[in-house]
Design brief:
The chain is of the alpha/beta class. 42% of the residues lie in helices and 15% in strands. It contains ten helices and eight strands. Helix 3 (54-61) packs across helix 4 (71-94) and helix 7 runs parallel beside helix 9. The longest helix is centred in the first third of the chain and has 24 residues, at 71-94. It is globular, with a radius of gyration of 17 Å. It starts with 7 loop residues before the first strand and ends with a strand.
Length: 260
């Protein structure tokens, strides 16, 4: 993968990447992520950011120590946190003179041909303008993402729709292991997955502690993207500068190879 080749890159960041264990925003990491994405944008790459974190940030704004269980409460937290999240992204990207845009939608929109076309037209025009689309499911209306998992599958669906050259999913683990690393000291990182087989799917664990998506959703998302010909890298988001190494083709996290 040439560093000089202009690419369309989708980057997905989860709640665990954007927040501390306290639930408060990890400002330093968020700032570093934005600086890297802005730099890649300046190189000529088209950047799309799929960002979780609205619910957790909403909890932080209300000083709420524990996530509620009722859907209306969670949706209200998303409504509070989404504005704060976009404010932070707009402020941080603005420091590098990069324009951002917000795209909130529901998954059923993608199933309606006319709506899907309008969505794609908007998406492509934003990229023509040189803006960075920041994508999330509209949690204030839709409950699919709240119940079924993180934005992993959303990022994969978007990657497939816009013919992305690469999808990078940042999480709080180093990638896919051959066994649970928290239970087995001899667990080995799987650096490359050529095909997502039932055996690979069986290696995925349950949901994480702070986000709603575990590795099972990342495997499902990787399958959506690779079936559409989009390569996927799942890596630890603690150091966003890893994006440079990923674009250089170096071994970072787990790379899922696309189908021809």
């Amino acid at each position: 993968m040439s560093k000089n080749e202009h690419m369309r890159i989708v980057v997905k960041v989860g709640t665990s990447t954007l927040t501390h264990k306290t639930g408060k925003t990890n400002i330093a990491r968020m700032a570093k992520l934005v600086s890297v994405l802005a730099d890649l944008h300046n190189m000529g790459h088209e950047i799309v950011l799929v960002s979780s974190g609205a619910i957790s940030i909403g909890m932080g704004r209300l000083n709420m120590p524990k996530k509620p269980t009722e859907i209306p409460e969670i949706q209200a937290l998303a409504a509070i946190g989404q504005g704060e999240l976009m404010f932070m992204y707009d402020k941080l990207f603005g420091e590098y003179d990069v324009v951002v845009s917000q795209l909130l939608f529901t998954t059923d929109l993608l199933e309606r041909e006319q709506d899907r076309k309008h969505f794609l037209d908007t998406f492509n025009q934003l990229l023509v303008y040189g803006a960075v689309p920041i994508v999330n499911e509209n949690d204030c209306i839709s409950v699919d993402e709240l119940i079924n998992g993180d934005n992993d599958c959303l990022s994969a669906t978007v990657s497939a729709m816009i013919n992305a050259d690469l999808l990078v999913m940042f999480t709080d683990t180093d990638g896919l292991y051959d066994k649970n690393p928290s239970e087995h000291d001899d667990a080995k990182l799987i650096e490359c997955v050529e095909e997502i087989t039932p055996e690979i799917e069986s290696l995925a664990g349950g949901a994480g502690s702070r986000g709603t998506g575990g590795f099972a959703t990342k495997i499902k998302a990787a399958k959506i993207a690779t079936d559409a010909g989009v390569p996927v890298v799942v890596a630890n988001g603690s150091k966003p500068t890893k994006l440079y190494k990923i674009l250089e083709g170096k071994s970072v996290g787990t790379r899922f190879l696309p189908k021809e």
